[in-house]
Amino acid sequence: MLNKEISFTAMDIATSVYDYLKPRIFGMIIAFLFLAVLAVAIVFTAWPAMDQLPQNIEDQSNIEAIGVMIFTDFVVPFEIMSIVLLSSLMGAIYMAKGDDNK
């Protein structure tokens, strides 16, 4: 009993890996697509410095210029950030909910 040998074949390992990954494939595809979109957004976004913001002498707060830049040049990073913030909010709500079994 104590000297029983355990042996695995390649087929056993492949089957166990497949059984483990099968229910998770859809989530992995979604995560990979999210990371691909994030990488494309980071690589192909022009990141201007603060001195490149359009200056309006009459409006010192420059809110209109920032709004125009967000909805023209920075649409993709703005949308990605909204998805990230929404998912973190949902995660915080889920964590704060706790278990009802206690």
Give a written overview of the molecule.
This protein has four helices and no strands. It has 102 residues and is mainly alpha-helical. It has one domain (10-97). It is elongated and about 85 Å long.
Integer tally of domains: 1
Low-confidence stretches: none
As a percent range, the share of helical residues equals 55-70%
Radius of gyration, in Å, reads 25 Å
- Give the count of helical stretches: 4
Largest sheet: none
Number of strands: 0
| Secondary-structure content class | mainly alpha
Q: Any idea what the shape is?
A: elongated
N- to C-terminal distance: 41 Å
Q: How are the SSEs ordered, and which strands pair?
A:
Layout: H1 10-21, H2 25-44, H3 63-72, H4 75-97
Task: Provide tags for this entry.
102 residues; mainly alpha; 64% helix; 0% strand
Would you kindly provide a brief summary of this structure?
The protein has 102 residues and is mainly α. 64% of the residues lie in helices and 0% in strands. The chain has helices at 10-21, 25-44, 63-72, 75-97.
